[in-house]
Amino acid sequence: MKANRSIVDEIKRKITALFSLFLVVLVAMVGFSLMQQKATLEQEDVKRTGASLISDFKAQVNELIYQVAPLSEDHILSTLPSDLLFTQYAVKALTNLVDNTDMVKSAFINDGSVFTVEGYPFDTLRWNNSVFSEHANKVLSQQRRTLKIDKLVVPVESIEKKPSDQAKLFLAIPLRQKLSSLMRPYKYTGVLFLEVDLEPFLGSNQEKGSIWLTSQELVLEGTQSSDATEGVYRSPIYSLKDDFVALNLQLQREAEVYSNDILRAVLYIVLIGLMLVVLLTWYLRRLAKRLTNPMQALERHCERLKRGHYVSAKSDFEFRELRTLQVTLNQLAKQIKEQISSLESEKVKAQSSERAKSHFLANMSHELRTPLNGIYGVFQLMKHHRNAADSKELIAQGMTSTETLLSLLNDLLDFSKIEAGELKMESATVDVKSIVTEVKQEFVHTASAKQIDLIIHTEELANPYRLGDSLRLKQILRNLISNAVKFTSDGSVTVILQDGGKHLSIRVIDTGAGISEVALKKLFNRFQQADSSTTRKYGGTGLGLAIVKQLAELMDGRVTVTSKEGIGSEFTVELVLDICDAPEQSIMQDLQAIPALKDKNLLLAEDNPLNQKIFSAMIKPTEANLVIAQDGEEAIELYHELKPDIFFVDIQMPKKDGLKVCSEVREQDKTTPLVAVTANVMSGDLENYQQLGFDNCVAKPIDMKKLYEVINTIVS
Fold first, then answer.
1. Which of 34, 295, 337, 675 could pair covalently with 310 via S-S, beta carbons 3.0-4.6 A apart?
2. Coil, helix or strand at residue 468
3. Across 113-165, where does the E strand assignment appear?
4. Do 220 and 71 touch, CB atoms closer than 8 A?
5. How many CB atoms lie under 10 A from the CB of residue 540?
6. Which class for 24: exposed (0-12), middle (13-18), buried (19 or more C-beta within 10 A)?
7. What is the DSSP letter of 206?
8. For residues 147 and 178, what is the distance between their CA atoms, to the nearest angstrom?
9. Cβ-contact 461, 472 below 8 angstroms
10. Is the sign of the CA dihedral 219, 223, 227, 228 positive or negative?
């Protein structure tokens, strides 16, 4: 059995002394040489440092260019010069760019005019833009086919109109929109100028000496020049010939001083070192023979791994370190092989996910077009109908199609909120029996048309009043009952409500076609239904059950399902909702009743004529006096003149938008009810409007019942 010998220990024991002396000799010889060539070495050191700084600076600038190059085709920034509606989003994008990018000090957009389109920080808006507009016009006139990001050195004096010997470095990124033409693939709309912040570069290299950047006779802002003329290294970073901009680096370092004592010590050690080097070389040659063969074996093993042959080596080495290295390489080969297998599996999963998303988009296109076709068809038919009964039926069909379309959009919005973790659950008194009865009424007609029974059992519900979110509870019931009715051709759909303490159980049982074992495994996946034939036959987006599962989890609950093909399915939702007392039966106004607004003055700020007519028709039954403003400025004038009892404000209007109108009103008046009328119903929009000063919000398309509910809430 071979001894467990260590190559490291053997080398330490036998050559530590000689190797130490060799190092001393080497250092002494180098020191002697440095003393003889002190000036030359100092100059070479400065040159190397300067070249390193230039390479580092170019690398950082190139990395910045690579990082910001995609902004050239950013939709918001490239559209802003021609469409100022994107200003708010562009400011946010520029703010994020400046705040989150180390080497960007400021950013602004120029479209060739003498004014800045938008910029951040806002001090850039006061700069003289003649230099930048000249470059922007040059870029716009060239209409380059390929992206080219220019560098500009601009004197501070020409920007800020005050005497200065400093300059700023900018990157000019053309903003362009992609076109379908082969001859002219892009349309250039402006130029995004980024002021390069030199502080990260200077801060990371401050120990290397005094650094400053110059362009002709100007010093770049953020660097401090020196009056010294000797010991200063100068070298160009960019040239006019190659980069169309002149930029130089200047470096000054303090030289190290070598003492005479070091020189004498070097001379004494040199002679001894020469002899030791000879002895050490002879010994290392003998030792190398014992290491060469195993090291070559390891090298061959590494070459095999490099070529992708992840196999284990089985050599018997003398030294422990080499055996450990071989074991480590074998373990790495095994891990790499397992990781490759895992990556291939993940690739299959990713491809499956992409197919599911594509299938979802195709389904969504079909689901959106179906109600749109119903709405469009109803209006075409009503145009030619004279029979009141037929028209009433067509209107009902149009309302159904509209509600279906809104339901689809709401599902998408809710799912996006859940995915982003932004869905907030309310906590209020909920009558579970009343909610399930309301949801049942939505599907009674559909179930009757299919000749199936829709049965509700609440006998085992001991505590119907709970603290929860009535809207989300309805959403769970609506999705489960809708699916059950949709997939049941004959028989019945039964809903059973049970409870035990805080736990509320909802069971939806149908006698439909049932679900296969394979389909059950992916039933709650987003964008998916049981199978593609189901999607073609029954429609749907594949989001319903995914939303049910995630809403249940937000209520500390869960969803389970059991099903047999040809017999039916049973979905069980278990929620945790606190029990509460029944609300007092106070004399409350029906919030969805027509408000009594006789002799009340209402002001509507709305620029769309069709929306004006629809709103007027909805308000007419209230007998209120409605005054309409065509834009934000007229709305402010009419507000001061009329002093309305309720002020309805559209968010997006010409001249002055709804947010500015709200701000001006709230500066003078904290009591007049302000109601936002908006189509912006994405996550957080309605809450933001209320935080800005609106008392309530009405989403477009306007639901008349919701409008009356908001008015009654304000009046009461």
1. 337
2. strand
3. 116-120, 150-155
4. no
5. 21
6. middle
7. G
8. 12
9. no
10. negative
pLDDT value of position 261:
46
Could you give the 3-state DSSP secondary structure of residue 210?
Answer: strand
The answer to whether the CB of 7 falls within 8 A of the CB of 292 is no
Beta bridge partners of 573: 506, 559
Contact 177, 189 (CB under 8 A): yes
95-152 pLDDT tens trace: 999 999 888 999 999 988 888 889 999 888 888 888 889 888 998 888 888 888 989 9
Report the residue count for the chain: 716
Rounded distance, CA 710 to CA 590, Å? Answer: 12
Tokens of 467: 């603290």
Query: In whole angstroms, what separates CA 13 from the centre of its chain?
Result: 60
Span 412-427, mean pLDDT? 63
648-661: pLDDT as tens digits:
998 888 888 889 99
97: exposed, middle or buried (C-beta count within 10 Å: 0-12, 13-18, 19+)? buried
Side by side, the strands of the sheet bearing 428-431 are: 428-431, 465-468, 578-579
| H/E element, 578 | strand 578-579
| pLDDT at position 6 | 55
Look at the block and give the residue holding tokens 């010994």. 283
pLDDT of residue 27: 67
Burial code (b: 16+ CB inside 10 Å, e: under 16) for 186-197 equals bebbbbbbbbbb
Q: Which pLDDT score, from 0 to 100, does residue 308 have?
A: 77
| Degrees to nearest 5, angle at CA 607 with 624 and 714 | 35
Q: Can you tell me the mean pLDDT for 335-362?
A: 74
Burial level of 75, CB count in 10 A (0-12/13-18/19+)? exposed
**What's the rounded Cα separation, in Å, for the pair 86 and 74?**
12
**Most confident among 14-18, 66-70, 233-237, 360-364 (mean pLDDT):** 66-70
Share of the chain above pLDDT 70, in %: 74
For residues 461 and 497, is the Cβ–Cβ distance under 8 A?
A: yes
pTM: predicted TM-score of the whole model, two decimal places: 0.41
Residue 424 has pLDDT above 70, yes or no: no
Which residue is associated with the tokens 């079909």?
366
Please answer whether residues 516 and 530 qualify as being in contact, where contact means their C-beta atoms are separated by less than 8 angstroms: yes
Least confident of 161-175, 465-479, 510-524: 510-524
- CA dihedral 549→553→556→558, nearest 10 degrees, is 30
Lowest mean pLDDT among 41-50, 351-360, 371-380, 438-447: 371-380
**What 3-state class would DSSP assign to 299?**
helix
Q: CA–CA separation, 680 vs 689, rounded Å? A: 10
d(C-alpha 82, C-alpha 85), whole Å? 9
Q: What is the 3-state secondary structure (H, E, C) of 518-541?
A: HHHHCCCCCCCCCCHHHHHHHCCC
Whether residue 255 has pLDDT greater than 60: no
List, in sequence order, every beta strand (DSSP E) within 79-123: 104-110, 116-120
Contacts of 214 (CB under 8 A, 6+ apart): 220, 225, 247, 248, 250
Q: What is the DSSP string of 164-195?
A: -SEEEEEEEEEEEEE-S-SSS-EEEEEEEEEE
Instruction: Tell me phi and psi for residue 447, to 5 degrees.
Output: -65, -40
Residue type, 207: E
Q: Can you tell me the distance from the alpha carbon of 510 to that of 475, in angstroms, rounded to the nearest whole number?
A: 18
Q: Are 94 and 118 in contact (CB under 8 A)?
A: yes
